[in-house]
Write a structure and sequence with these properties.
Layout: H1 16-27, H2 43-52, H3 62-82, H4 89-98, H5 101-107, H6 113-131, H7 141-158, H8 170-190, H9 195-222
Helix pairs in contact: 4-6, 7-8, 7-9, 8-9
Length: 226
């Protein structure tokens, strides 16, 4: 209840720290803004979500999220088809999975959307790198770094290690990859039955290192700080 002197008998917050913490929480984006399903709301997620949040309530409704995902996939596939002499078996398979029309409408709501979309973007970045067209890749720097982090986290968990609780820099993630590789080698030597699994993990480690090299080049070219 307010008083004439401007004070209230029962303030909403008991301390200034509590008030600042509440303001900080209010500034966080709604989980529905994670449109690519990677578990984080990156810069690209925020930009695209704000464009498609028609009623401006800070939450993407199911129909808004659906329309946004359709547009994201169509944009990448269109870029792929516009590349000169573009042909890649892996990319063609992912493009075929998404399909067009009614199939695409169904796939953007599929439980595997995040994994397939991540694969689509990663392979497109690789295609751009190969063709050296100078065209901007479909992933932002932070999104690409997040993709590499997810793969490293997956490998860490498979080896009994913990995930990285934050989005690291390229150098931090490279150090994490070295730790994963060392643990993989240790378990490989300890148990010969893990030979096949260890080989598969090593192949994925090599793929991550290639991603990190691309990120370093991208960050240097764009003047981005890691």
């Amino acid at each position: 209840m307010g008083r004439r002197d401007g004070f209230v008998d029962k303030p909403k917050f008991s301390t200034r720290s509590e008030m600042l913490a509440s303001r900080k929480r209010e500034m966080l984006p709604d989980p529905t803004f994670d449109v690519d399903g990677d578990g984080m709301v990156g810069a690209r997620d925020m930009y695209m979500s704000n464009r498609f949040d028609v009623n401006r309530d800070g939450v993407l409704q199911p129909d808004e999220l659906h329309e946004l995902r359709v547009g994201m996939v169509q944009d990448i596939i269109s870029k792929y088809k516009s590349l000169p002499n573009a042909h890649d078996a892996g990319l063609d398979a992912v493009v075929a999975w998404f399909g067009e029309g009614a199939q695409l409408d169904q796939q953007v709501d599929h439980q595997n959307f995040a994994r397939q979309y991540d694969s689509l973007c990663n392979q497109m970045n690789h295609m751009y790198s190969q063709q050296s067209t100078g065209t901007h890749a479909c992933l932002t720097y932070d999104d690409a770094l997040g993709s590499a982090k997810r793969l490293v986290d997956s490998l860490s968990v498979s080896l009994g290690q913990e995930k990285t609780p934050f989005l690291p820099s390229v150098d931090q993630l490279s150090a994490r990859v070295q730790s994963v590789e060392a643990e993989n080698q240790r378990l490989r030597e300890k148990d010969s039955a893990r030979e096949e699994q260890a080989r598969e993990i090593q192949e994925q480690i090599a793929a991550v290192r290639e991603q990190l090299q691309m990120l370093r080049a991208t960050g240097a070219d764009a003047g981005l700080a890691e």
